[in-house]
Structures are given as C-alpha cells and as structure tokens.
Amino acid sequence: MPSGGGACGLAGGGDAAVAFSVPKKPIQWEVYRPIKGAPGAFIGIVEAPDETSALKAAIEEFGIVNPEHQNRLFVRRVPSGDD
User: Exposure of 28 by Cβ count < 10 A (0-12 exposed, 13-18 middle, 19+ buried)?
Assistant: First the structure.
C-alpha cells in the first residue's frame, strides 16, 4: 500500500506550489481621433489590458456617443519604463 499520498495525491503529503496571478501594471493607451492631413487629434489617456478594451474604455470615459466617431478612434500604447 503506497504511503503519504493523502487526498491531494502528492507523494509525502508535501506542500504544493500555489500559483498566484500577479496583477500587472495597467497599460496606458493614448486615444486619438483622425483628422484629414494631420496625424490625429489627441483626446486623452485610458488604462486597459489590450487595444480593444482601450477603445471601449475611451468611448465610455470620453462620452463619444456618435457611432461614426467611435469607429474612427485609434489608440497607441504609451511606452512604460519597463519596455
């Protein structure tokens, strides 16, 4: 009969390594609205984990209600000191 397996199935009943998800520093994104013949008008900065979430956050945070304006927005990741 094997010994020390216990309920968790670890030999010797040792301590199992527990994985914790370490929260990442939020990514900052610059939000722009395109203008013909110009690089774009800066609207502001939002924090989000990815580009799609950043666009959604910008629409909500800056109150952009016109769907045509929403579809034209673009974001650019702000470089952090870690990059």
Answer: middle
pTM over 0.70? The answer is: no
Q: How far, in Å, CA of 5 to CA of 12, rounded?
A: 6
Total number of domains in the chain: 1
State how far the alpha carbon of 24 is from the alpha carbons of 19, 21, 27, 54, in Å.
15, 9, 8, 16
Q: Which two tokens stand for residue 13?
A: 């009943």
- Structural domain including 39 reads 26-77
Place of tokens 């952090």: 80
Q: Say if 58 falls within a structural domain.
A: yes
CATH number at 72 reads 3.10.20
pLDDT digits 0-9 by tens, 35-75 = 888 888 999 999 999 999 999 999 999 999 999 999 999 99
